[in-house]
Amino acid sequence: LLIISKRSEVWNRGKAVVVFGSAQADLISGVNIIFCQSAKTVAFNTQGLVAQGTFINLNRSDYFMDSVTFMKNLFDGYCRCYRTLNWHSSASYSDMTQNELTYFSNLGNQLGYCSRREINRCDLSWHQFASGKNVSSKQVLYMERENNSNRALHEATKKLIQNHHGAEYLVGVFGWVTIGDLQNILNVLKKCPIENTRCILIISFVGPTQDSATHVVGILTTSQGILCREAVAEMDKGGYWYIYFPDNSDWKAGEPTLA
Hints:
alpha+beta
């Protein structure tokens, strides 16, 4: 299948070739072609025009799970599923850490990876299976989890940036950071060169104190710059915490609101 739309990017997916660009489609022997221009879709094959399709727009994030889309979904799912962690107001912040690491460990296993805790000084990592029961030493995801604002800035963020295991996905989950420390984390990330195939996701509960940190911020660094999304943490009537997205919350380019 060959899909052509307005954007000039190319991906290879095995025998399929997906092209985003505005050029006319050349007919390729044995390959079905879908040509998208504006909102009008027309399907071709090697004999020429077959049928005029429906009115749609093809967006990269709607059809392909690239690194940026995956990391966005990782944050979105974390927020929407937070109530399933059953973190009660009477529990300690150590319980919060363990619940969250268990959540991400289970997620990695369910995606087909081997999740490991405390390997090579990593709080959590996902690994590919090499063959059979053998597990590759190469990391797919590397995560640091921290509840202290100062350590989140000076230790956890530094370890993510200096990760030497070649993980494609780098994630920091911080149970509390102050506005000042989050701004400093942003400043550090903006100076960090990110390869095209790697992203860093920072998930932070932001507030002046640990108990008042209810502003949840997702910061995603990509080769194209910084993206962010904001959410709110609240406690239900039973004393359990959950996270929700306000109506106007979505991923946007630039830095979060830190007023």
